[in-house]
Specification:
Layout: E1 2-5, H1 14-26, H2 41-44, H3 50-58, H4 75-84, E2 88-93, H5 100-109, E3 114-119, E4 130-133, H6 136-145, E5 150-154, E6 166-168, H7 171-182
Parallel strand pairs: 1-2, 1-4, 2-3, 4-5, 5-6
Length: about 190
Amino acid sequence: MRLGIDLDGVVADFNAGWITRYNRDFDGAVGLGDVTDWDGIPNATHFPDMAAFWAWARTLDGASLFRHLDPYPGSVDALERLAHAGHQIVVLTHKPHWAIHDTFWWIAEHRLPTTEVHITDDKHLVRCDVYLDDAPYQVRAIHVSRPAATVCRFVRPWNRPVPGVADVADWAEFEALVTALARNAPRLG
């Protein structure tokens, strides 16, 4: 099956990455639990809005914040197992234009088992059998646009359940779901 996998908040630990860097750069005390809303970063920091946050995140040590993120524990191993089982890993991520090169660098450095990467805000245009995302607006858009596909919400504090969407709490749960779906007749969203 084609598995449409988001990066930030799913494979790459975006919040831990920016919070660690922010606390170091600004002598801050932001914790992982302080961000509970999508685009809620200004509520936890001194940044007046997301534009100011992105201006800071754009250049850190000669690369954007996206170059410096760690993968969630077990995420890359899970993708490798899924690829080894014959599934096609399709990376679907939305990035600012200035982070595109750092995104490819990150994918290569962490050796994600993919031959297909789409950097787009229109993830629903890429046909997959199963989608995994944490962005509330993406989960809804994909679910509406791809009713034959299985859409999974990676459960995070900043997203809420969507009727008809599978909730996935961790990578083991996602692997189990994909394995169960693979036992059924193939379908394309």
